[in-house]
Design a protein that fits this description.
Elements: E1 4-8, E2 14-18, H1 26-32, H2 49-65, H3 69-85, H4 92-108, H5 112-136, H6 139-161, E3 173-176, E4 189-194, H7 200-216, E5 221-228, H8 237-254, E6 259-263, H9 267-272, E7 279-283, E8 289-293, H10 299-310
Parallel strand pairs: 4-5, 5-6
Antiparallel strand pairs: 1-2, 3-6, 4-7, 7-8
Helix pairs in contact: 1-3, 2-3, 2-4, 3-4, 4-5, 4-6, 5-6
């Protein structure tokens, strides 16, 4: 039976150790490196699994920047093989980074089913680690584990939505414009933005969204910015009204003209994989999700948006 313990590295990064897995067999690295073993019986100082995986991700990033997604996928798959062979030798943040990076490369290669299935497996692993940390870890470890789990879970949700009908929005509190549903907006392009008053990148996104709306609303673009109560979540009516006033003040500061609504709880965020903020979701004229992610300068978002304009 494996016994899991947790410790903090000098860097403060969460790492889960499992004593029976500490020795890495040569055959694992041999497969990963196509016959080039890293460790030998005569070597006392060898590249650790953590170093191998980190180096592989960095190399894959360089390959992606050079427009070589096939080579990047191959590099990441080697790193994944080592990470799964020695799961408790890899820093948790590195495992999460590996999972999200490989899934995005699969998307670039139009391997959507591979991305969805792979992320389901990685999410299950991350949930297991998070559960262990919630039971045995320090406060810092608990936060790190939960954050990593939510990251990989939400990315899996986002990718799983692609090409499917967007979940309907049922929002009762609207800060601007009249209430609508996605069904009401059929035939128009809808951009959902999940945001919060305390989120600095969200504030930076508002001017960009306003400019986009001013330019493209005539071509059928609708923007719906969705937030919820955070500071006053489950608070008193007075506290919730105070937070609503803060939301309105934020919108006034940015001169927001598009639709803004307040969700009752985090349920809609869960449906759209929008725990991280801001999250943008692009819904086409047929009501299908064409993009879900951070938006902004993401080239995948720009490509998806240009495709919708071409289909106008």
């Amino acid at each position: 039976m494996q016994v899991f313990t947790a410790k903090s590295m000098t860097s403060g990064v969460l790492k889960v150790t499992d004593a029976p897995c500490r020795a890495l067999p040569e055959r694992i690295y041999s497969r990963a490196l196509s016959g080039e073993p890293i460790m030998s019986s005569q070597t006392t100082v060898a590249e650790t699994p953590q170093a191998f995986v980190s180096r592989g991700i960095d190399h894959a990033d360089r390959l992606r920047s050079r427009g070589e997604p096939v080579a990047a996928a191959s590099e990441l798959e080697k790193s994944l093989q080592v990470a799964r062979a020695t799961p408790y030798e890899i820093e948790f943040a590195t495992r999460i980074r590996l999972g999200i990076t490989l899934a995005d490369v699969y998307l670039a290669l139009n391997r959507l089913e591979d991305a969805v299935g792979f992320l389901a497996d990685e999410t299950a692993f991350a949930e297991k680690i998070s559960q262990i940390m919630q039971a045995t870890g320090t406060s810092t470890q608990k936060r790190s584990a939960m954050s990593g789990y939510l990251q990989i879970r939400d990315r899996g949700t986002q990718i799983g939505l692609l090409g499917k009908s967007a979940p309907e929005i049922d929002l009762k509190v609207w800060l601007t414009c009249d209430p609508v549903t996605l069904a009401d907006l059929g035939g128009r392009i809808v951009l959902l933005e999940f945001w919060a008053t305390w989120c600095k990148p969200c504030q930076e996104m508002f001017p960009k969204l306003t400019a986009l709306y001013d330019q493209e609303s005539k071509n059928g673009l609708e923007i719906i910015a969705i937030t919820r109560h955070y500071m006053a979540y489950k608070g008193t009516l007075e506290a919730r009204n105070d937070e609503l006033d803060l939301m309105r003040k934020t919108l006034d500061q940015h001169g927001v003209k598009f639709r803004v609504a307040v969700a009752e709880d985090e349920g809609l965020q869960r449906l759209y994989g929008a725990n991280g903020l801001p999250t943008l979701v692009l819904v086409d004229r047929q009501g299908l999700v064409r993009y879900a992610g951070p938006g902004g300068e993401d080239p995948v978002f720009k490509s998806a948006w240009q495709e919708q304009l071409r289909d106008n």
